Amino acid sequence: MMPVLKPFISLYSSVFFLLTGLGLLNTFLSLRLTMAGVGVQTTGMVLTVYFLGLTTGTFCCGKIIRSVGHIRAFSAFAAVGAVMVLIHGLYLSVPLWMGLRFFSGLANMGMFMVIESWLNECAEPWVRGRIFSIYMIMTYLGGSLGQKMLNMADVEGQTLFLVISIFMVLSIVPVSVTQAIHPKLPKREGIRLSRVCRKAPIGMTGCFISGILISGFYAMAPVFAHQINLDVAQLSWFMALSIVGGLLFQWPVGILSDRFDRTLILPGIGLVLAGASVFIAFIGKGHVEMILVATVLFGGFLFTIYPVSVARAHDMFDADDVVKVSSALLLAYGVGSIIGPMAASTTMTVSGTPYGLYFYFIGGSLVFVFLSMAWRSLEMAEIVPPEDQVDFVIMKQTSSVAIHMDPRLDVEGDESEASETTETKSRATA
């Protein structure tokens, strides 16, 4: 296995450095705005723009990568991202930070597209699933480590801006020194959203709701933690445990979704997520230890809605449609992620309590449960026997290029095409 993974070590290193920096950045900026006295809704508005930049980047970054090549594009995106971080530290202004967050989202999407297209090009079909899984694990580990680095320096100082920039610049090094040739960026494949909504309403709804809930969590959870008087060390554990929970629960939830009807598993995930939110908002209220334990369960089910929803949607389509359908699902997630921070911050403001964030999660989860069960009972969602369902795959929402690494893709082809692909990849990893 190690010889197979060796060509990817440099790319995995870049992913780890990048996600460590970004994991720290997202939490740090949310906390910094709150400690500076910026209102909850204004904080949500600033952080919403980042997800708008990410979603916009899926449409425009590909042109830059194709025109200058992967290494130059990655270096440029990372440099822009690092500069955006440093400018944050110069002056706190809501309009300025909104512009910075937008361009940070664009740059980060560009870096994800470079790395994921590289992994996709170099991965042989028979190891694509393992390559993809390790990539997902690195994103979770980097993101969780970034949370713990919040303790390195004073949150109200400038040091953490420098630390984040260092990690973003470090991510350039492994990519720049690799001997692999420039891979080809996969072509975008379109599909009518109405067709996916009609054939897989539960999957589309799950991805959309997942975007609303996950972006709301990343943006407003640090605000919640600060308002309930968690210190920085406790806050970092709170965020890290939620991400670790998201990683740990991928396997058991995935196994369940492979063995049982996914139209029942998905509402079940929503109910457990709602239950964990009720526990934090009412039972664990005022008890830090109980909140930290419950957030592992909360994160575990929050981060599994998306991959199970994707698997459910693919149950309804042929293998040839994997890329097209996944692109539509990722777009649904992206639209939801733009809504999430503003919706979560508004709920917190209207409720008059930081625990309003979990009222938001309770409401979002129950709406998903209701819609899923309604479509199932109205026979709008076709029930697929467990033995005919596609395999569950650990997934996180990065760029549309990652879709091409999905091991559910039909890898069968004619012998001449397979021979040509093998020869190209041998030169790419030489």
Structural commentary:
The structure is a single chain. The protein has 430 residues and is mainly alpha-helical. The chain has a single domain (2-422), classed as MFS general substrate transporter like domains (Growth Hormone, Chain: A). It is 75% helix and 0% strand. The chain is built from 18 helices and no strands. Helix 13 runs antiparallel to helix 14 (288-302) and helix 13 (262-283) runs antiparallel to helix 15 (305-315). The chain starts with a helix and ends with a helix. Residues 410-430 have low confidence and may be disordered.
Question: What would the keywords be for this entry?
Answer:
single chain; 430 residues; mainly alpha; Growth Hormone, Chain: A; 18 helices; 75% helix
Offer a quick outline of the entry.
The chain has 430 residues and is mostly helical.
Q: Count the DSSP helices.
A: 18
Instruction: Give Rg in angstroms.
Output: 21 Å
| Major beta-sheet overview | none
Q: Roughly how much helix do the residues carry, as a percent range?
A: over 70%
Record field, number of beta strands: 0
